[in-house]
């Protein structure tokens, strides 16, 4: 198992700080959250020499595309167009820094009616198909994340997540905390084309981003994880979660790269 962390826990620090922390603490992976100062459109305007820092570290990097105020399923075509534009910019940013894959949310609806949900799903798949095609053209894996088990969210069950992945031609990012809110967390682990995992825990009801072992998620399922990004708000909890993963994988070498 290769283990990394989301920069959510160290948000607002520098790129070098993220990479140095990952290296010092023996992580092999890192997911850069592309919000705030790491918004792809701004990053692409930077002096490209600043991206050379990624060549100085042996860390496999993934990107989490912007999601705040964006929605590929929006009934407003302007929002969908802007969402697609920013997904494509995320792929461009990935190319610049040598990232392997980008993860995105599948969107949501704001009126809880079946006809609205059906329409939103059609729009989301249409938007994400285009984003996937663009990413593939740039040599980047495009991956759709499952969401908590709420009617408003798409990909809230493994069957729907699998449908999105198939229709869009993409990969899947499986979030263990989101899966844990469903009635069958294990079903998400049976999906094909899983790019990597987001690792966190909760009480089975809410998306709480608890450290692994502090909720009800079945830790035995983690034996199936090959690449895992610990996605938490607190770095100390990331280190706690890493210890849980190490205890489950006796072959894991904390110093391995």
Summarize the structure.
The protein has eight helices and eight strands. The protein has 257 residues and is an alpha/beta fold.
Q: What gyration radius follows from the Cα positions, in whole Å?
A: 17 Å
Strand order of the largest sheet: 1-2-3-4-5-6-7-8
Large-scale geometry: globular
CATH superfamily: Divalent-metal-dependent TIM barrel enzymes
Number of domains: 1
Helical content stands at 25-40%
Note the beta-strand portion.
Answer: 15-25%
N- and C-termini, Cα separation: 11 Å
User: Structural class of the helices, strands and pairings?
Assistant: alpha/beta
User: How many extended strands?
Assistant: 8
Series of secondary-structure elements, N-terminal to C-terminal: EHEHEHEHEHEHHEEH
Low-confidence stretches: none
Which CATH architecture would you pick? Alpha-Beta Barrel
**SS summary, helix count:** 8
Kindly report the average pLDDT value: 96
Major sheet: size, sense and barrel closure?
8 strands, parallel, barrel
CATH topology, by name, is TIM Barrel
CATH class: Alpha Beta
């Amino acid at each position: 198992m290769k283990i990394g962390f989301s920069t959510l826990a160290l948000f607002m620090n520098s790129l070098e700080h993220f990479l140095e922390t990952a290296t010092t603490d023996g992580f092999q992976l890192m997911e850069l959250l592309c919000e705030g100062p790491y918004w792809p459109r701004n990053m692409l305007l930077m002096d490209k020499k600043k991206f050379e820092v990624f060549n100085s570290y042996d860390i496999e990097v993934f990107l989490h595309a912007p999601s705040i105020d964006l929605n590929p399923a929006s009934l407003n075509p302007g929002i969908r167009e802007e969402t697609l534009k920013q997904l494509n910019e995320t792929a461009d940013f990935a190319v610049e820094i040598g990232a392997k894959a980008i993860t995105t949310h599948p969107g949501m609806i704001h009126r809880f009616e079946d006809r609205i949900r059906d329409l939103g799903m059609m729009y989301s798949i249409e938007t994400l198909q285009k984003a996937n095609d663009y990413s593939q053209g740039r040599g980047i894996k495009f991956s759709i994340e499952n969401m908590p088990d709420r009617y408003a969210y798409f990909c809230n069950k493994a069957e729907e997540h699998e449908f999105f992945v198939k229709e869009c031609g993409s990969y899947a990012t499986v979030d263990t905390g989101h899966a844990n809110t469903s009635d069958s967390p294990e079903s998400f682990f049976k999906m094909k084309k899983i790019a990597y995992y987001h690792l966190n825990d909760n009480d089975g009801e809410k998306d709480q981003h608890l450290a692994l072992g502090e909720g009800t998620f079945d830790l035995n399922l983690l034996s199936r994880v090959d690449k895992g990004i610990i996605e938490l708000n607190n770095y100390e909890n990331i280190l706690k979660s890493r210890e849980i993963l190490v205890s489950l994988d006796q072959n894991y070498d904390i110093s391995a790269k």
